[in-house]
Write a structure and sequence with these properties.
heterodimer, A: about 250 residues, alpha/beta, Rossmann fold, 6-stranded mixed sheet, 5-stranded antiparallel sheet, about 25% strand, globular, B: Methane Monooxygenase Hydroxylase, Chain G, domain 1, about 85% helix, flat
Amino acid sequence: MTSILKTENVHLYYGEKEALHGFDIEFEQNEITALIGPSGCGKSTFLRCLNRMNDLRNNTTVTGSFKIGDRDIYAPTTDMTELRKEIGMVFQQPNPFPFSVYDNVAYGLRIAGVKDKKVLDEVVEKSLKQAAVWDEVKDDLNKNALSFSGGQQQRICIARVLAVKPKIILMDEPTSALDPISSAKIEDTLLELKKDFTIIIVTHNMQQASRIADKTAFMLNGDLIEYNKTSKMFLNPDKQQTSDYLNGEFG
Amino acid sequence: MSQTFNDKLKVLQKTYMKMGINVSDQIYQSIKAFTENDQKLATEIVNRDSKVNDEEVDLEKEALNLIALRQPVASNFRSIITLLKASSDLERIGDHASSIARETLRINTESRIPEVNEAINQMALKIRGMLESSLDAYVHSDQEAAKLVAQEDILIDKKFVLAKNLIVSEMEKNNDKIELATIYLMVVRYLERIGDHIVNLSEWIVYNATGKIVELNPGKIEPELIAKELKNNPK
């Protein structure tokens, strides 16, 4: 196993208030890592640190080391567009742009200056296939992406991220707005995708974490309580707090 | 909702303890019936065995419901699995006790083998001590105590071999006692098997505490151990 993303001594402050209290997590390549914990524990906040989405918030300070390979994500020389191509993100609510499926998936490449129709066609098809939604949309590529079901929209959004060939995909509760069948399809998709990508997923669904994640990190009040192989976490976690949380016995 | 999971778990744990105490009593009664050739008591024990089985089935049903409806994980999951597995070992122990009562009903002679009766009493006393220590270890989630209980099984194995030798020599001496001796052989065999099931109980206590499936049966870990024990300590 090779480490792809390494964070150390992560602190985050909203003004005076410290929201992440200093922890280390290392992510392995071609694995799915789940971040779990109660609402407000800092898991989404931490996820957003990984591709500097918190930079967009006023009054937010992030300290600590974030490295993808040898490169410092927070170096002043980091090109934000390049970074977010490399570390893509999928959100809780499917958020396709209000135009065609094709234009959605081709969006990133067009921004990057790709104009060759043949290249775009290929990438759109490949990405939609990787996101396991090709068969459902291939005859309607010019239809508005918003006219598809929630589950299909989410997979179109995943395809849009895949089109720019990221190394890492961050997902913030990508199935919480979806029905169980659509969720299961996304989960299957993720298990396929991890062969080519590294996935870090925030989820409130414990069973989802246990089904798909190789490793699971349990966070609480801005601290990392436990980070272990998922099978270990769900059978014999090191911490009682982890067991209590997983069994819904919190507070 | 989560409160009720713990409440239900506690109820099941109480049922398990009750089963354990009943099974210990069942061993006591069946050995008493056998050594005293009390046919009436033996019949009662055989009729009562279905009670332990019913308790086990109820416990199983409840535990399976909890797994299906609550999806317990981590320590809650291990607690439920431990209850399921350990209660089925208890049920088997109860079966063996009732088999001893059935053997008693096969006795159709007044004659006995007194020194084997004594050996059987000793074995049963030791076994009930182990079972009660095991229940104690379960209540306190004390895996070290559970491991000690398991180690004692080697003494049961040894008592079994010694009793078997006594029975065989009795068969050689008294041809008219051969049929009776086979009954004695079955009884000591059942007691020896009960010892193995008590070892299993210890293994589940360790699983409950650590999540690890371990082999604690001293005779299985080291097959030469009984021979060694008999050589070093032949009495």
